[in-house]
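## Example record

The block below lists the input lines for one assembly entry, exactly as stored, with component labels intact.
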Amino acid sequence: MKNIRLFALFLTLTAALALAQPQFSGSLQTGFGLRTQDLALSLDRTRFDLGVSYDLDDAAFTAELRFAYDARTRTPGFSLGEAYATLFLPSVDLSVGREVVAWGRLDLLSPLDALNPRDLSNPLDQEKLPVAMVHATVYPDAEGRYQLEAVWIPLFTPSTAPAGEWAPPPQPLPPGVTQVRVEEPAAELASGTFGLRATASLDVLEGLDLGGQVVYGYFPFPSPQGVEPVDPAQPAGPFRLVLGYDRRTLAGADFALAFSIPGVAEGLVLRGEAAYAFTGDPEGADPNVQNPYAEGGLALEYAWSGGPTTVLAYDLKWQKADAPGKGAWTQTLGLMARYEYDERLTLQGAWLHTISDGSGLVRPGLEYAFADGVTGRLSAAFFYGADGTRFGVWRGNGELRTELAYSF
Amino acid sequence: MRKVLTAALLFSASLALALSGEEVMQKVDAHPSPSSMQGTMVMQLIGKQGKVLTREIQVWSKKADGEERMLIKFVAPADVKGTAFLTIKKDGKEEMKLYLPALKRVRRIAGSQKKGSFMGSDFSYDDISNLSGMKIEDYTHELLRTENQGGVEVYVVESTPKPGVDSSYSKQIVWVPADTFVPTRIEFYKKGKLYKVLTNREVKPFADGKYLIPTLLEMENVQSGHKTVLEQKDLQLDVPIDDAVFTERFMKKR
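Predicted structure tokens for the full assembly:
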């Protein structure tokens, strides 16, 4: 009986997919990069992304497959990108599968956009990693002014740490410690990540969006949890450092407000986010558990008449230190600009500066549309700052990059 | 005596025909406009050298209860496919939101972007949302002259924004044929200098002639030498469009 049901389901799905007529899309991208310090090849890769989607009236399915070839390491690789199905119910969208979800409002530094892990192996390319999740969005009113989102990510996926020339310098191990073991949360129901987000769009000034959210998840990178004997039969050592992923509950709020200053500037948008991370060690008493932190940011966007659209951003982060130390404050200033010179050429740039340690990153770039769907990009990245500072550690990794992409 | 009478009759007839700038623009505005519109727009962006880029967009618009709503979704080229732009005008306020599929986020965008280029074209966001016509009460209209074009009298009206009105242009000069009262050419000025010229190349009747809709428009930026040809295709007027179309939920749908 069960087999008959499964067969019927298979037939129904096949018929539905055949009727839906798949749509294919994708892109072919190739890029080369030179390190500014010594003009060594820092990037030589080709990527082919293929996407397929089925759209029905009340449901949709999408999947993306990536083939990448890194010519520097001569390594080919296949990966599955987003792959999820969505059911459109009268006032609920329900998605199941590998998905990327963006929460928060800020682009440059977003403390709330923390649901998906990131691939930071090359921090210049940081991409969100799709993860398997159940994602529901409820639209309680017909105008769609209010939304309630819920996400459940059953399995933990860590972020990918900076690798190769981007990896942080190795830290000396404590005396007697000879190995390191990284322990990931067990694949069980209790290890999941849960998130809830509510948003409202209100008729205040020229429009106000408000959001509030809470995510019960993990820190993206592991931290020391203690040491253990390499051989349990020899409790006196040698020892192994255990790294693990601490839980955090990230709660926060955000807004976007459109307004004008009469006679000075028309049509500005101010965006903001504030977040607090609760951890298992609120007092900073346990050196083996990560401490709470708070982070907030503001960004002001304005399009200059006949000129660029600019975003001026400010971010402030407080990190509680282990007792009896004092907390650390980090202030970051950001500036982004984008200017469409004509229908083909777009100039853009971003600058991030950490006020607290004087380090920063400058990323100028331009994009040129050679033809419909064929785009060339030229960009650079320059890091500055002293050794050991936030961006200064990558001072030698400045890059000049050229990329060509064909989308279909 | 007969000649004098004829001259008097012609004079009084011409007086009756001579409309003021305000009256001309009122006649333009009096054209019935559909309560809703749905269709496809194909934009050809033509550079100084004549090279062409093409954008294809789907458009839904609706007017009801003093509110104007418009949703635009990009269909082509592939690298911008899925980008959606929503505007809601109500009580003199305008909300603008943009969905960028790469970021998977709906963003409220700055009203100052209204004056910027609409996806690299020679139309601004403002031009696109005003395709159905300018808000005539925000302008003072002065008849500059009349011209005879192929036997048709054409009114040339200068429209200047009233003090306090936030307009992208310092003035507009509009050519209005007396037989249709559908503008055929609009010159846009910035700081007194000619900036762009919009030409309605084709005007088609819809709903048994109830509506006259420009279906082929050309916007030329005379300062840069670029132009954009916009063709409205598969137009459906006065069709019921669900309010759900003008929501973030629909913007995000593929």
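Chain B has four helices and 13 strands. The first strand of chain B starts at residue 36 and ends at 46.
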